[in-house]
Each structure stands twice: as structure tokens, then as C-alpha cells.
From TrEMBL:
<feature type="region of interest" description="Disordered">
    <location>
        <begin position="199"/>
        <end position="222"/>
    </location>
</feature>
<dbReference type="InterPro" id="IPR011035">
    <property type="entry name" value="Ribosomal_bL25/Gln-tRNA_synth"/>
</dbReference>
<dbReference type="GO" id="GO:0008097">
    <property type="term" value="F:5S rRNA binding"/>
</dbReference>
<keyword id="KW-0694">RNA-binding</keyword>
<dbReference type="GO" id="GO:0022625">
    <property type="term" value="C:cytosolic large ribosomal subunit"/>
</dbReference>
<dbReference type="InterPro" id="IPR029751">
    <property type="entry name" value="Ribosomal_L25_dom"/>
</dbReference>
<dbReference type="GO" id="GO:0003735">
    <property type="term" value="F:structural constituent of ribosome"/>
</dbReference>
<dbReference type="GO" id="GO:0006412">
    <property type="term" value="P:translation"/>
</dbReference>
<feature type="compositionally biased region" description="Basic and acidic residues">
    <location>
        <begin position="199"/>
        <end position="212"/>
    </location>
</feature>
<dbReference type="InterPro" id="IPR020057">
    <property type="entry name" value="Ribosomal_bL25_b-dom"/>
</dbReference>
<comment type="function">
    <text>This is one of the proteins that binds to the 5S RNA in the ribosome where it forms part of the central protuberance.</text>
</comment>
<dbReference type="InterPro" id="IPR020930">
    <property type="entry name" value="Ribosomal_uL5_bac-type"/>
</dbReference>
<keyword id="KW-0699">rRNA-binding</keyword>
<keyword id="KW-0687">Ribonucleoprotein</keyword>
<dbReference type="InterPro" id="IPR020056">
    <property type="entry name" value="Rbsml_bL25/Gln-tRNA_synth_N"/>
</dbReference>
<dbReference type="Pfam" id="PF01386">
    <property type="entry name" value="Ribosomal_L25p"/>
</dbReference>
<dbReference type="Pfam" id="PF14693">
    <property type="entry name" value="Ribosomal_TL5_C"/>
</dbReference>
Amino acid sequence: MGIPLTIETRATKTRRELRELRSQGKVPGVVYGPSLQAPKPIALSERELLPLLRSHPNAVLSVSIPGGLTESVVISEVQRDPLTHEVVHIDLHQINMNKKLRTHVRLEATGDSKGEREGGILQLLAHELEIECLPNQLPEVISFDVTSLGVGENMLVRDIPVPAGVTVRSDAEQVVVTILAPQLELSEEEAAAQAVELHEAESRSKHEKMEAVKTGVGGQQA
């Protein structure tokens, strides 16, 4: 089924009641899903939830819906306090284990790149991928090796290997990681210019892709 998570119903709705709930070490939340007549307000133990968010943020969870059956859910949204970063609310969504779901998974660069060994700086520009797969094929993280990446080189979304059964829905031409030239000798103006150059390169790549699509469509109409 999934990782078990204990939840309980809650009747608290006002800000005062929610603050009181949080002072008891609980996080308010809501369960959404097709088998529920209406969204179900719940509360979770902060002590149980926080380790789960750190180690298995994308995992399929098994919860017993109060007044219903045990259901498989995923975390669809986590709201945090903008100042303290404490979790203040969480949304869970029921899933069908036989139906594909669309979600975001964290990216992780591994290895010591050639460019870094030459003094370059690795910059991760995308921290997650949007993917589609069956719940039992959902990866915790998608890792990719940057060992062969040199200064001035980059990897695009289409270069990232994904597990079997996983379809990438992010823009294939999006830059995921790049190796910048050593910054020690660059002035602030030069560093800013380099950042602009990278942005323009991404924009040109997307524009060329769009033009190619338009040309293809036009050719079919002719």
C-alpha cells in the first residue's frame, strides 16, 4: 500500500482554533479525493510528519480516513510559514494505484564534474522534474551523473535518465545544470553579463524550438 501515516478528524476552522491546534504539536490539513463526498479536514502529528517530509516527500502514503476505509494518498501541497519555515498546513490527495499520476520529483546531481576539477562552478538551475507514472513507480529522487560535464557545458531535461515507466513532462529543452567558468577574476558586471548570456541562450533554444514547430505545421498546411 504505502508508508502508514496517522491522521485524525478536526472541527477546527477559525484562525484561533488552528493556532491552538498547532500549539499542541499538530498540523492541520485536508484530504481531497473522488471517493469523498467533500474534502475532509484532518490533523496530523508534527513529530510524525516532519521526518516523513524530509525522507519521503513523494512517497505513496497509507492513511485511514476517519469514517471510511484505508486509502492511498500523496502529499499534494505543503504550506510553510514564510518567516519560520514551519509547516502550517498540508494537503493530501487520494490516488488510484492503477492510474498514472502527474507530480514533481526532486533532482540530485551526483559525481565530481570535470568542470569543477578545472576550477569551474556547478550551478543547478532546475531542482525538480515534472513526471507522470503509476504510483508504485514513483521515484523518491531522480539522480544524474555530472562527472563528464566540462566548463561551459550544460545538461538539458532531455539528457536526464529516468527509471522505466516514468515519463518526463517538463520542457525537454530546459537547462538543468551548467558549469560556469571560474568567477574569481570576474567583476560584478562580467558575472552579471554571464548570467544574462545564459538566460539568452535558454531563450534562443526555446524560440528555435517554437519556430521549428511552426514551420512543421505550416509545411503540413501547404
